[in-house]
């Protein structure tokens, strides 16, 4: 297990944890994961995003991609989150091109969020998702939205402000 923690994909973000007032919520489990306060393997971690496995996988490969600094849910995003919007625009096409249609990507729409820290679900292969997972992570539902739908929400929010 110690070998896995020494992988170069992991980045020490101790600087982030030294600034708890900005971008850190001490009650948020995802903030604790990103700041290595919880024993969870970080598959990727940099100043913008972090990625780790979901503890209750809905598919054989179920990952969560989160902003490294605390951001609430989809509805809490605003103009100041343009960098995450740009990131969201780039994550899905890259993964979709690499894996074609075997992945499912999306965000739970409030109040259907189990953790109040923005997180993108990446599930693969979608064909191996069980019945309940197909409902919970159902595309075109009012509780699970795609990155494109989130971007549309952010664009419309920017137009109305």
Automatic annotation (TrEMBL):
Gene3D superfamilies: HIT-like (3.30.428.10)
Record-annotated active site: 119 (tele-amp-histidine intermediate)
Substrates-to-products reaction catalysed: adenosine 5'-phosphoramidate + H2O = NH4(+) + AMP
Entry GO MF terms: hydrolase activity; nucleotide binding
Superkingdom to which the source organism belongs: Eukaryota
Position of sequence motif Histidine triad motif: 117-121
Keywords of this entry: Hydrolase, Nucleotide-binding
Keyword presence, Cytoplasm: no
Keyword Endoplasmic reticulum included in the entry's annotation: no
Pfam families: DcpS_C
Domain annotation HIT: ranges: 29-134
Similarity comment: family membership: Belongs to the HINT family.
PANTHER family (UniProt xref): ADENOSINE 5'-MONOPHOSPHORAMIDASE HINT3, APRATAXIN-RELATED
Protein name per its UniProtKB record: Adenosine 5'-monophosphoramidase HINT3
